[in-house]
Amino acid sequence: MKSTTTISKIKTEFSLQNATSCGGIKIFLAFLEKIKLPEAMCSLSGGKARNSLFPVYRILLYLIVGWMLGCERIFHFRRLQSDVLLRRFLGGRCPHHSLLYKELIRLVVSVPLWLTNCGG
Q1: pTM reported for the whole predicted model
Q2: How far apart are CA 19 and CA 104, in angstroms?
Q3: pLDDT (tens digit per residue) in 71-102
Q4: 3-state secondary structure string, 7-29?
């Protein structure tokens, strides 16, 4: 399920109906959409198939947003996994926090390959 509504067009209201504990991050998510960071990061592969459930760019976006929300450790991402606003931003699902460990290890292995392909 891919979100078709941009974050900036989501109505903000101050009621407890459909409340999210991360409501203040809406401005930051709208900023990331405005500068088109998700589109710019789509070309990152990190050794994964293009049709994978959680591409590398989504994992990286999730890490960036989580760190902005105060997740200092990977297991802190557990509380973000069911947040509706973040799920909408990430295309319908948030990866499980245990998957983040595996993806970071995959990135550590693939970064030297990126550097050699870039001439660095």
Answers
A1: 0.77
A2: 31
A3: 999 999 999 988 888 888 888 889 999 999 99
A4: HHHCCCCCCCCCCCCCHHHHHHH
